[in-house]
Structure prediction request, 270 residues.
Amino acid sequence: MNRTQSLEQWVEGRLSVGKYGFSLDVLRESFPLQSATALKFSLKRLSDKGKIVSIFKGYYLIISPQYSGKGVLPPALFLDDLMTYLERPYYLGLISAAAFHGAAHQQPQETFVVTTLPALRPTRKKGIHIHYISKREIPEELLEKRKTETGYLNISNPALTATDLIHFEKRVGGLNRVATVLYELTESLDPSDFSWDLFRHAPETALQRLGYMLEFICQDKKLADELYNKMMEEEMILYRIPLKASGKTKGFTSRNRWKVILNTKIDIDL
Prediction:
């Protein structure tokens, strides 16, 4: 680095090689002769000019000219780098992953990222809204890598996306929204996705609800049959569970092969 290079020039240099973010540690390494106070002042000046924005303690986004009007970047451009900085395994999941798989009827305004414990607080900065979903383990074998402008992004495969949507349905707006996304996601679901790896990571209750919704809400008997047959091959014992997990269960029928108690009505918004 040129000793006379300004922070603004350094930031523009990172943009020129496709880097949309940086950590405070990297910055200090690049400006070893600058005091902490001087760097803090330079960061504030660039932030006031809309050139950078802090989205996590010690991590900054660089706002390129093409996104300067919005003042934010699409998470796909920085998410992998951010999670590397946080030293967290992760994948883009739920509605965010469904959009990558073609289920984009309702473009998500929020980004859903699944990572490990301990839980992370949501990121809300200038139009960027990231929800972090916590799991004990990240199922690497159920992830796909998607090429982006800046590298790669981990996303859940269609089957994991479907079971996560159902398991975390409250986080994305309820079963009606899940059903709408799932209806479009069936175009990307393949019977081979219902694997032992999926059964090892997805809650059995989520698999039951998925099977019921595939068969009776999405009207895709082929996928439903494949899922049911695989579950029977794994000798799963199905117990009565409510379709709406938080709803009442008495007085409702569960006369379906999934043993799902029909305690709510689901409407798809097409």
User: Anything to note?
Assistant: The first strand starts at residue 21 and ends at 23. Residues 75-261 form a domain with the Beta Polymerase; domain 2 fold (CATH 3.30.460).
